[in-house]
Amino acid sequence: MEHVHANSGASTTTASQIGQQEPEGENWITGSEALLRCLLAEDVDCVFGYPGGNALYIYDAMTGNPAFKHLLTRHEQGAVHAADGYARSTGKTGVCIATSGPGATNLVTGIATAYMDSVPLVVITANVPTNVMGTDAFQEADIVSMTMPITKHGYLVRDVRDLPRIVREAFHLAGSGRKGPVLIDIPKDVSNHRMLFQPEEAELRLRGYRAAPEIEPAEIDELLAAIAESERPVIIAGGGIVYANAAPEMMAFAERTRIPVATTLLGLGGFASSHELWLGMPGHHGAYAANKAIQNADLLISIGSRFDDRVTMKLDGFAPKAKRIAHIDIDPAEIGKNVRTDIACIGDIKDVLGYALQIAKPSQRDGAWLRELQRYKADYPLRYQDSETELKPQFVIEMIHETTKGEAIVTTDVGQHQMWAAQFYKFNHPRSLITSGGMGTMGFGFPSAIGAQLGNPDRLVVSINGDGGMQMCAQEMAVCAVHNIPVKIVVINNQVLGMVKQQQELMYERRYSQIDLAGSPNFVKLAEAYGIKGLSASTKAEARRAWQEALDTNAPVLVEFKVPMNENVYPMVLGGTTLDQMIMGDFED
């Protein structure tokens, strides 16, 4: 992701320091008060955070600003994941705040999670006063340097007068181009210095930063010509479709050209799962039809997908029959990074597809390719060995889909349950799946649901977690209880680190090591300890009753589904093998 550089190192001065009388009036305010005004000017609905000594001037300013909304999480990681879930589900920029030292460093995993998945965040950290910086002062950490590889840009505010400009630039950088997190580090003394507040209104001009390159019609014309010549084209649609708000254009383009579509994990919902052209998710745990389509395609078109290793698997055997590979992306750095690119269309996806739709002609192919892929879908659907004596996790996901009619916002943690949710919950709307893709962050699922619920108060939000990931941020149940945030918390409890177990079973000759989670708490009692209704189920009948009770409760509810330990996620492509070398599990031919 592109980094930009700006000079934020001017010395700090105030009127009192240079012997002048301080002005008076409502616009002569502290840096902390200016920060809050700037955030409100950016239409920030809520900030997620956790206070500490060097952030106290900022938190003190909140007491005098009733318009400013702040949600106190129980851990800084909960704050950054909640801001992330808010951003992914709304399309707006999420904001979180933490104090210096450990408060700031506790945000790092969440910042990296957002960076890998191109999520717009403005992360605000406090720091020690400027006069002790570099002395290893109490709770001092150079968070700007630490996060440089995982942010679009980082600011250290040394002059309070720069603060309005910096906040405005930060939101512009985070929410434009290839989106991502931007950090603002504010020393304690700067947050208390006074300034004449004059909001930035001039046009933003950041030297060296281009939010989105202008589209090149010739590139798109070349792509359309290749489509017209192809017999077996396939689209891989990624998270860029969702982030660009380009789902309508994606649908229209696929229907016009009659090209089948596989959606990556982050692309789920960007193209409706109910559509006849949808093949499923490709890759490591992808659908049979999606993987076979990629391996047999003569033209492969990536739209907003970066060809990550969980999609491509063994690179030198990826899409071997593709005569040409096209890539549409807003970030030129992604073109050719992992997979050869014959046709590059650089620019905002919404603009690229908008232009393409003006001139694209209806497909003239005879339909044989689509019929072949439909046979794959019919002969090798996603399926599992159901049971009347055990509660299967796939059944739980199907039940959640059926009862919510696919209209919920679903957040997941990371592991087997994440893949089952991707496979068996059918996403028909963008921004309806909130999950950690590139970083694969355990502990993400539940706090991200809190942010999604606050950003979408009229939507049903379901947080699907494993028993491992749930324990990493379980303390955030206190936030749901105190504020009556009605997230439905699902725990798929198999008493084991399931995805690690599956890999040890299939790739390490069943040498199981450090995966036993049998000492986990009673999740029902844990929920009740936080003041949340807790329910449990271990049969289909119990599952239906408990889940319906959760849906009928206008409050947060945790439902634990006890599932067998030995259930695996299939299909699966092992590392070092190609997409057409799928293990089908119980349905192996």
From TrEMBL:
Q: Give the source lineage, highest ranks first.
A: Bacteria, Bacillati, Bacillota, Bacilli, Bacillales
Q: Which portions of the sequence form the region Disordered? A: 1-24
Q: What is its EC number?
A: 2.2.1.6
The UniProt entry, under InterPro entries, shows: Acetolactate_synth_lsu, AHAS_TPP, DHS-like_NAD/FAD-binding_dom, THDP-binding, Thiamin_PyroP_enz_cen_dom, Thiamin_PyroP_enz_TPP-bd_dom, TPP-bd_CS, TPP_enz
Q: Can you give the residue ranges of the Thiamine pyrophosphate enzyme TPP-binding domain? A: 413-561
Question: Is Transferase among the key words of this record?
Answer: yes
Catalytic activity annotation: 2 pyruvate + H(+) = (2S)-2-acetolactate + CO2
Annotated Gene Ontology MF terms?
acetolactate synthase activity; flavin adenine dinucleotide binding; magnesium ion binding; thiamine pyrophosphate binding
- UniProt cofactor(s): thiamine diphosphate; Mg(2+)
Thiamine pyrophosphate enzyme central domain location, by residue?
220-353
What are the record keywords, sorted? Amino-acid biosynthesis, Branched-chain amino acid biosynthesis, FAD, Flavoprotein, Magnesium, Metal-binding, Thiamine pyrophosphate, Transferase
Q: What is this protein called?
A: Acetolactate synthase
What's any one GO cellular component for it?
acetolactate synthase complex
> Which segments constitute the Thiamine pyrophosphate enzyme N-terminal TPP-binding domain?
30-146
**Which source organism does the UniProt entry give?**
Paenibacillus rhizovicinus
Q: How is the cofactor bound?
A: Binds 1 thiamine pyrophosphate per subunit.
The UniProt record lists the keyword Transferase: yes
Pathway it belongs to? Amino-acid biosynthesis; L-isoleucine biosynthesis; L-isoleucine from 2-oxobutanoate: step 1/4; Amino-acid biosynthesis; L-valine biosynthesis; L-valine from pyruvate: step 1/4
Its family? Answer: Belongs to the TPP enzyme family.
